[in-house]
Amino acid sequence: MEALDVDLEEGELELPAEPMHLNMGPSHPAMHGTVRIVLELSGETIVKADVQIGYLHRGFEKMCERGTWAQVFPYVDRLNYVSPMLNNVGYALAVEKLCGLVVPDRCQWYRMALGELARLSDHLTCNGAMAMELGAFTPFLWFVKAREMVWDILEEETGARLTHSFGRVGGMAKAPSPDFKGLCRAALPKILGLVEEGEKMLLKNRIFIDRLENVGAISAAEATALGWTGPCLRATGVPYDIRKAHPYLKYDEVDFDVPIGTKGDTLDRFLVRLAEIRQAKRIIEQSIDRMADEGPVNCDDPRVVLPDKTDVYTTIEATIQHFKLIMEGAKVPKGEVYSYTEGGNGELGYYLVSDGTGTPYRVRIRPPCFQVTGGLHRLLEGRMLADIVPTFGSLNMIGGECDH
Amino acid sequence: MSELVLQKLRERFGTAILETHSDFGDDTAVVSPDHWKAVCEFLRDDPSLDFDMPIDLCGVDYPGRPPALPRMEVVMHLYSVGKGHRVRIKARVGDEDMEGAEIDSATSVWPGLNWLEREVWDMSGVRFRGHPDLRRILMYPEFEGHPLQRTYPADRTQPLVPYRTEEEAGLPLNKIAPFGADEGMPFGRQSTPQPDDV
Question: The complex's ipTM?
Fold first, then answer.
């Protein structure tokens, strides 16, 4: 028998000229179950990509118009379920801006430490999941082990691993536990150790690097015009980080760097997130060092902050105050406000409209993922089918937030 | 800081800027819908303004306003990475029945508005003239109405596959509606806004 491919000339091959349509997702492991991409393929090259979202739409903004201002907190938890604390704090800051409140210093440091822990969990999940989608299962397990340590601290503080609902207008649900600082100091070196181990497995792996480098690249100008923020924008070389550009809480008093990339490709996004993990560790360490052990956590403002439980049970004034805050909601002054913080994926904004009653007139969230996913087709067109997995993974699309 | 932005807008567009305010430190300009796209282009191209990043676009519904005032507000937030300033611009469109709720698309100014404009169409029912692909984005194509209009009842459901009846199931289902008309409403509030609420 002779070889079948000897006389085969390329000119004789009849390749189909029609472009092929391919559905990817929503039930596809790499699409996180919430995104569908309809692809027009020529061979294995993507000619057009139509990204469709909405599979996780839950009417968040409509629901917010039906409860009190405080009842929005559980909803924002469920928008970004890998860094819910950042959403809690972002929403609390927005309502506080409308009320003209500034929380005590101790609470600001506490919010920063908890927020950066949430950022650790966000970046660990994103990088770990992306590596796993490319077949590197071991680093994923190490990253998730590190994330578990973060969640253990958050569970100790808030009572819940994932959906904490811990933020309050004018403070936090509880004061920091006495063990909080000790837990952080013990866990951070271990977390960093695991990150370093996982990183070594990946960044010295030729296959991994080849699949990321120069894949899904975007220029700084284009990413800006698409409204990209966060690690995805910083990977293109734009040093826009709200914690530096428009500091809130105490971010202007801590020492940290803003890592940026150069090419805006998938590898840069991966490396920016790894570098941000180290910066988050620095911020947590400085925050817990400077957070006082004693002192108030909540604002002293009876219009929005619930009274102490012992007073509620013993005095009529506190009982009435508690009743009114729960049943009617805190009366937030009339007006409109846009407040923005640096979420796990970029600018997390809340545009709130109040008509002066206990219920929000309009709560609009500006989820960073929505804009980033809106630009996904730009990264895919012209690339190969197999590049979708690392590109999409590196954007860290969070379905709850993207689909509202 | 960026009172400059509002001042520049007033100088350039005069009476097309209907109102300005800087409540809570957020510079806001209400512009006439006819000048929407021109304002966007000016904000992007003027070198001292240099708004290169579209942050957000949303619709806010105010039914029952006086007849002279259109019902839907289209609210856009912009940011300039280089200058570090922000602005909010708004346009009011549509009458009480959402007739004439149309505005020029600014997708050609910032490509990032593509999905945002689709979302505002889907959720609030504002049409964007000249948008390349004005499909629904969060809801499915068969969906009727626009859920973020305040006149859309929160307890309305539109299942693509009809709910099973008790006859079909052959057993009592003890079904409860997914959302009661007043469920989730705080004490003393009604689910549908009254005309004098606004």
Answer: 0.87
Of B23, B58, B140, the CB nearest to A351: B58
Of the pLDDT bands very low, low, confident and very high (cuts 50, 70, 90), residue B158 is confident
Note the pLDDT of residue A4. Answer: 65
CA-based nearest distance B33→chain A, Å: 20
In this complex, which of A59, A222, A351 lies closest to B147 when CB atoms are compared? A59
CB within 8 Å: A366 and B56: yes
Positions in chain A whose pLDDT score sits under 70: 1-17
Per CB-CB distance under 8 Å, the chain A contacts of B24 are 97-98, 335-337
Peptide linkage before A26 cis (omega within 30 of 0): yes
Going by the DSSP 8-state scheme, the letter that residue B71 receives in this structure is S
Q: Which domains does chain A have, with CATH numbers?
A: 15-52 (no CATH), 60-301+336-402 (1.10.645.10)
User: Which residue blocks in A216-297 are alpha helix, DSSP H?
Assistant: 220-225, 230-234, 242-245, 266-290
What is the reported pLDDT for A67?
85
B87 close to B78: Cβ distance less than 8 angstroms = yes
CATH at residue B47: 3.30.460.80
Please give the pLDDT value at position B175: 64
Residue type present at position A142: W
Report yes or no on B100 lying in a domain.
yes
Residue B181 domain-assigned (yes or no): no
Judging contacts by C-beta atoms under 8 Å, the chain B residues touching residue A338 are 26, 56, 77, 86, 88
Contact list in B for residue A322 (CB cut-off 8 A) is none
Parent domain of B139 = 3-146
Question: What residues of A are in contact with residue B53 (Cβ under 8 Å)?
Answer: 224-225, 227, 229
B166, part of any domain: no
* pLDDT value of position B89: 93
Residue partners of A333: CB distance under 8 A and separation at least 6 = A98, A99, A100, A354, A356
| Per-residue pLDDT tens over the stretch B37-88 | 999 999 999 888 889 999 999 999 988 888 778 889 999 999 999 888 999 9
Enter the tokens of residue A226.
């698409």
- A53 and B114 in contact by Cβ < 8 A? no
Q: Is B111 within 8 Å of A226 (Cβ atoms)? A: yes
CA pair distance A377, A392, nearest whole angstrom: 10
The answer to whether the CB atoms of A366 and B60 lie below 8 A apart is: no
What is the average pLDDT value for chain B, to the nearest integer? 84
As for how many domains chain B has, the answer is 1
Nearest CA in chain B to A241: B81
H-type alpha helices, A58-204: 60-64, 73-77, 84-99, 105-133, 137-158, 180-203
Of A54, A63, A98, the CB nearest to B184: A63
Cβ–Cβ of B55/A68 closer than 8 Å?
A: no
Q: Is residue B172 part of a domain?
A: no
pLDDT at A349 (0 to 100): 92
Is the pTM higher than 0.80? The answer reads yes
